């Protein structure tokens, strides 16, 4: 993210701090299409003729089979199968792009760089602006702004040098060259989109059942605990990668005891990623953790939470202690296997 982009957003009424953005003078309308500066995300570019082979050997999904107009969920894990980062990945003309949480991006960039060795790959932290477009008429707003819209989820389109990645029916990520960021923002506003803060995007991803690993939750979860095989983030037919044996064993030996659920935290409590979850069957021992949280219109918070599967089955899950606030379980847009 460039200083000029930050200055522009500040001029638009944004407050930026701690990888988050707010528009305090604007009231968010959940029924309106929103444009969100995705300052909580960063982009790593992997360029060079060995990019596909290099990433394929390190990540959980089949990079070698990623089609030019496709996107995929992916993860970078420890040798013990614990997720260091999850990634939205797509092709670009010089290789690949990896979108991940901004608070861990420098460390992940450094760690991936340690594996380059003799591979013909160059890894860089991009200055591209990332803009989220979310809401019931997001596709129409993008079209009105002159941006080509991918027809299917997890596909990308290119308009000049701007990339549009479709996450699902109503959520899109734009990757915009720094010099075009301000003009793109203004085009979207003219088309009818309204600026909104980071919480709007976080809530959309929570409702889509799509987790984001940050500093508070690194090395806490194996892929299946985050439902990653259900959203297409794991290939079980590709070759080895760090943590592959653990991920495969979890899949085929039936040892999965935790899953990710969507929950509501009642008003009066302010949850945070990494907070522990308790259930009567585990007493004072933690039975899970919150992954991502966002304020809910009408009060309280919504969150993605990984916990023991029998917690969800009993409906008895409490935040931060056995006597903490009770969590209400909400639906996910996909079935838990």
Automatic annotation (TrEMBL):
The keyword Thylakoid does not apply. Keywords: Transit peptide. This is Folate-binding protein. Residues 32-222 form the GCVT N-terminal domain. NCBIfam families: ygfZ_signature. The keyword Repeat does not apply. One of its GO terms (biological process) is iron-sulfur cluster assembly. Gene3D superfamilies: Probable tRNA modification gtpase trme, domain 1 (3.30.1360.120). Signal peptide: none annotated. It comes from Pseudazoarcus pumilus.
């Amino acid at each position: 993210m460039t200083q000029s982009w930050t200055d522009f957003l500040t001029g638009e009424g944004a407050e930026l701090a701690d990888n988050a953005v707010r528009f305090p003078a604007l009231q968010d309308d959940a029924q309106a299409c929103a444009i969100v500066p995705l300052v909580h995300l960063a982009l790593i570019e992997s360029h060079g003729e060995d990019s596909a082979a290099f990433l394929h050997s390190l990540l959980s999904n089949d990079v070698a089979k990623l089609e030019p107009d496709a996107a995929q969920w992916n993860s970078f894990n420890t040798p013990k199968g614990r997720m260091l980062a999850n990634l939205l990945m797509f092709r670009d003309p010089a290789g690949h792009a990896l979108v991940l949480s901004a608070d861990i991006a420098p460390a992940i960039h450094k760690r991936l760089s340690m594996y380059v060795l003799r591979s013909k790959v160059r890894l860089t932290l991009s200055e591209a602006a990332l803009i989220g477009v979310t809401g019931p008429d997001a596709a129409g707003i993008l079209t009105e702004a002159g941006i080509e819209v991918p027809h299917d989820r997890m596909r990308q389109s290119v308009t000049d040098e701007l990339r549009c990645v479709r996450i699902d029916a109503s959520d899109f990520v734009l990757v915009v060259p720094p010099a075009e960021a301000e003009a793109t923002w203004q085009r979207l506003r003219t088309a009818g989109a309204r600026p909104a803060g980071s919480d709007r995007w976080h809530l959309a991803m929570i409702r889509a059942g799509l987790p984001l690993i940050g500093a508070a939750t690194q090395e806490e979860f194996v892929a299946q605990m985050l439902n990653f095989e259900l959203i297409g983030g794991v290939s079980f037919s590709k070759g080895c990668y760090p943590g592959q044996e653990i991920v495969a064993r979890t899949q085929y030996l039936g040892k999965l005891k935790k899953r990710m659920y969507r929950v509501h935290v009642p008003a009066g409590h302010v949850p945070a990623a990494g907070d522990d979850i308790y259930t009567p069957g585990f007493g004072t021992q933690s039975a899970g953790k919150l992954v991502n949280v966002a304020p809910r219109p009408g009060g309280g918070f919504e969150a993605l939470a990984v916990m023991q599967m029998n917690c969800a089955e009993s409906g008895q899950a409490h935040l931060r202690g056995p006597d903490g606030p009770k969590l209400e379980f909400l639906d996910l847009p996909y079935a838990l296997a």
